[in-house]
Design goal:
alpha+beta, four-stranded antiparallel beta sheet, about 25% helix
Length: about 300
């Protein structure tokens, strides 16, 4: 595939291309799981010993990273640390980011409950596979958040957190390997625009497509279908070019379908099919791309091309 827009590159030490990292493992129901919760002070941490299993549930989700205090004691301790920090003139959110980014307060960041929300709904409790990746969580905690901010997390699904882990919040634990962040406006502006499409046409089309993918029902990023769609949304600019060209020819995006590919064999490959219907004639055109979702990091098998039902 073509090189992705620069702003879509992962941040931090995890800056590697999708598909270029070794597949991660996660707990399964076959008795091989080695995921466990340990307690350090008042905050839960995950043991990074994860066994490889063919039954792993991988996640590639789009949403927002938020934090919660798991205990009243930790909240009070954070308030004392804030009182000692030079936070004059900062907003509340800027003060939180400044305090947690201070290395002297790293003990607080380790014990916080990091929650991933999708469309405003608390969906996962995040835990880094490598403790050093706590920095990725801190980077996602923006000092000046905007409604158009998006975080992408890639990892494996673990067990449901016990009530004491996050102040009674019982959600699936996602052990993440990669987090990177952007805002939708920057995403749209970074996508290569087809020469025959004007910017005032292309940018609204791209923003609408990204929004529709995020708002698909039950898109928690934990199924092969949604992982493929989320991958295309943040890594393949062709999906936006095709949609903008369809809008320019008076067509609407009328359906998005993901199904197992005929090429699937030893690997799991899906076809992501986008249907566009002309608003005047009702004639439908369909385009598809093949995505390999066998392991933790999906990758493109074939670029978008016309789709014909067999």
């Amino acid at each position: 595939m073509a090189d992705p827009p620069e702003m879509l590159q992962p941040q931090g030490d995890q800056a590697s291309e999708f598909g270029a990292s070794p597949a991660a493992a996660a707990p399964s129901d076959d008795g091989n799981e080695s995921l466990c919760l340990s307690q350090v002070g008042d905050g839960p941490l995950l043991d990074s010993g994860l066994s490889t299993s063919a039954g792993s549930t991988y996640v590639l989700a789009l949403g927002r990273v938020e934090l919660q205090f798991p205990t009243l004691a930790l909240e009070k301790e954070f308030a004392q640390a804030t009182g000692r920090a030079p936070t004059k003139g900062l907003t509340d959110r800027q003060a939180v980011q400044a305090v947690l980014s201070d290395r002297q307060n790293r003990y607080l960041a380790r014990q916080l409950c990091w929650v991933f929300t999708i469309e405003g709904i608390e969906t996962y409790i995040l835990a880094p596979r490598d403790p050093a990746d706590l920095d990725l969580l801190l980077e996602a905690l923006r000092p000046a958040p905007r409604p158009t901010d998006v975080d992408v997390v890639i990892g494996v699904l673990g067990p449901i957190a016990p009530p004491e882990a996050c102040n009674g919040l019982m959600l699936p634990i996602m052990v993440f390997d990669q987090i990177y962040s952007f805002d939708v406006d920057a995403l749209v502006k970074s996508i290569p625009r087809p020469e025959k499409i004007e910017a005032e046409q292309f940018e609204p089309a791209a923003e609408e497509l990204f929004s529709r993918i995020m708002q698909l029902a039950d898109n928690s990023g934990a199924t092969d279908e949604y992982r493929a769609l989320n991958y295309l949304a943040v890594r393949d600019p062709n999906i936006y070019a095709i949609t903008a060209e369809a809008f320019a020819t008076n067509s609407s995006l009328t359906a998005v379908d993901v199904r197992p590919s005929r090429l699937s064999g030893s690997r799991k490959i899906v076809d992501a099919i986008f249907s566009y219907t002309n608003r005047q004639t009702g004639v439908e055109d369909r385009y598809f791309a093949r995505v390999d979702v066998t392991e933790e990091f999906p990758f493109l098998v074939t670029r978008f091309s016309p789709f014909f039902e067999r």
